[in-house]
């Protein structure tokens, strides 16, 4: 492996991106990483590099466990509980993939995670649109209040 003098700067840049990223963006980045690990695991299975397969599947499972850890089951709604079960099922499926080197099941898990990732992206877009509408409405109300206040000042006689 050749040494790249810029690696330390790239690493700092990546760490900075993660440390300053919005939690929603971090979640999508984790989904992307998980899906990439599964893609690498599929290649490792095809190339009979079983240590690489295991390492990549374990990395994907670690991300899924982290997703499970962040779900508040006590205060969450049914969606939270369904997500918990979904992630747990995917971890179990990845264990089966690892043991049986089942590429078809790996493709299904990858597709399921891709679908969930895309659903989260759509949900984030909707939330962001709603937030933008709320901010616009707040600005409109503030403008109307400021305008009404300015009209009240013009009605007063200040002895000019």
Bin the helical content.
Answer: over 70%
User: What's the CATH C level of the domain at 20-121?
Assistant: Mainly Alpha
Stretches where pLDDT is under 50 for at least 5 consecutive residues are none
Under CATH, the homologous superfamily of the domain at 20-121 reads Flagellar protein FliS
Order of helices and strands: HHHHH
- Number of helical runs? 5
What number is the mean pLDDT?
86
* CA-based gyration radius: 25 Å
Shape: elongated
Gist?
The protein is mainly α.
Task: Please give a structural write-up.
The protein has about 160 residues and is an all-alpha fold. The chain has a domain at about 20-120: Flagellar protein FliS (Four Helix Bundle (Hemerythrin (Met), subunit A), Up-down Bundle), CATH 1.20.120.340. About 85% of the residues lie in helices and about 0% in strands. The protein has helices at about 5-20, 25-45, 50-70, 80-100, 105-155. The termini are far apart. The relative contact order is 0.08. The mean pLDDT is about 85.
What are the SSEs and their pairings?
Layout (H helix, E strand, L loop, with lengths): L6 H14 L2 H24 L3 H20 L8 H23 L2 H53 L5
Features:
5 helices, Four Helix Bundle (Hemerythrin (Met), subunit A), elongated, 160 residues, mainly alpha
């Amino acid at each position: 492996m050749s040494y790249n003098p810029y690696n330390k700067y790239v690493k700092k840049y990546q760490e900075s991106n993660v440390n300053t990223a919005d939690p929603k963006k971090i979640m999508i980045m984790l989904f992307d990483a998980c899906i990439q690990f599964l893609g690498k695991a599929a290649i490792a299975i095809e190339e009979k590099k079983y240590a690489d397969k295991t390492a990549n599947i374990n990395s994907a499972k670690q991300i899924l466990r982290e997703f499970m850890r962040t779900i508040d089951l006590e205060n969450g709604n049914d969606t939270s509980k369904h997500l918990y079960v979904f992630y747990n099922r995917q971890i179990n499926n990845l264990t089966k993939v690892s043991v049986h080197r089942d590429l078809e099941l790996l493709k299904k898990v990858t597709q399921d995670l891709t679908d969930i990732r895309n659903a989260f992206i759509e949900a984030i877009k909707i939330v962001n649109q709603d937030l933008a509408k709320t901010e616009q409405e707040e600005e409109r109300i503030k403008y109307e209040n400021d305008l009404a206040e300015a009209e009240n000042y013009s009605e007063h006689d200040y002895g000019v």
